[in-house]
Here is the input.
Amino acid sequence: MKFMNEASWDRIARVILGAVLIVVGFGGAVDGTGGTVLGIVGLIPLVTGLAGWCPIYAILNFRTREETHSAA
Here is the structure.
């Protein structure tokens, strides 16, 4: 898809990182505000990894996914 700017390895890493942060934050490993912040911050890599699109990458015109050229 044209709007995706993350490679498969990038997406997998983001989903794993996001899931770990959410579990650590909301799972009780970190108490109080710090745990809540970790859990919420974990949503960012999780959502961008699932979507395959990172707004920061788009702003910086950066991509880890190689462009595919269709034969016309």
